[in-house]
Specification:
The protein is an all-alpha fold and about 450 residues long. Helix content is about 65%, strand content about 0%. It has a single domain (about 10-455), classed as Up-down Bundle (Amino acid/polyamine transporter I). The two termini are about 40 Å apart.
Length: about 450
Amino acid sequence: MSSRAKISFFALVLLIISAIDSNRNLPASAIFGAPLIFFFLFSAVFFLFPSALVAAELSATFPEEGGIYHWVKAAFGESFGMLAIWLQWINTIVWYPTILTFIAGTLAYLFDPTLMNHKIYMISAIASIFWGLTLANLFGLRISSTINTIFATAGTVFPMLFLIVLASFWAASGHPFQIEISAQAIFPSLAKIDTWTALQAVMGSFLGMELSGVHIAHIPHPQRTFPKAILLSSVYILGTMLFGSLAIAVVLPSSQINLAGGLMQVFDNFFQVFGLGFLVPCMTLLIVIGSIGGMINWLISPAKGLLQAAQYGFLPKSLTKINRHGVAGRILIGQAVLVTLFCFLLLFLPSVNAFYWFLTALSNSLYMLMYVLMFLAGYRLRAKPVQRIFQIPGGRLGLFLVILLGLIGSMLTILFGFIPPEHIDVGSSARYTLMIAAGNFILILPSLFLILHKKIATK
């Protein structure tokens, strides 16, 4: 057992919430209207709880050297371990432009809200912000974890709760809803398959829950405490994401929701109704600072993941050179170049919304493939004869049910990622499906070359 200080129950709940809760996903969920209620509950059962519980058991199995590479390697060998860590890294590279699009769209409210639909502005802003953060990391400039957490929390928790409060007052004032709230409207029709593309937006709200498992060795009485913390934090995350998305959906018609600036759209609407227009710049800065604060940790983490792969011979040593500030500069520069190239996809898609949605679906598909490997590893490693401080209750049957739920949720999310959403003009349906398929193939292919490189190098 590690000698590090124990994490209290309340601190654990806050750690899980701060790692998952995000304002960025609210507009993308809101465009689906009333059915988002069903999809949030569905995603909690078929992904949120299973991913957290399986990651907790795997972390308990490998308390000192946890992580997706070690988990999958122990179950299926080092080649699959490399594939898993590659999927974790490359999905983040695809994800960066989406969070940067959200930041750039929100930032536009300080100057001209119409800029959030301007492609050249968005590309310039996205690239500038990411290169700025990359250069700061290259020179070893880091914000302390405490300040970073304060920024991320203040820019996420407060705006989200404030949004829900304003929506409650707005509804109580008798304003008309833009969506129908009824049992018939909430449950999506199986005949309208494109409605199920909502899983891309909603499942995306819960990605990263597996990271909570790293705290398992520092929790008092983990077998009792961790499930309770997961339940409480999940209820909070589910509630804030659900009601935050509804707050946008009931105010803005789905055709008018901008995925990059939708959050500020609805705040601007509320502030005008309640005579609080002077708060627009304050809220804009708060959300931007919070989003950047939440992104900083993700900037360096993927590079560390690739460095881990390099230690096992999967990468050429030339890529892993550490600069005098202790940073893998070449990997960070490579990340920035790839993100910049992804930005230019915006020129070939009909709109900012289409760009945002395409990269979200592609990123989620890659991440869900990693989760498939994680769930399968969790089932296989239960037979490993080691002492665990936590395991999923219910024996083999309980484990099987949790794994099955997680696999169903992951596979459905991958499947519906190939279908364009009804509410966003992404161009030709066939072209969109082909782009998703090609994107998955092209981005997974390098991992196969790296695996081959390792096998050749060890002969």
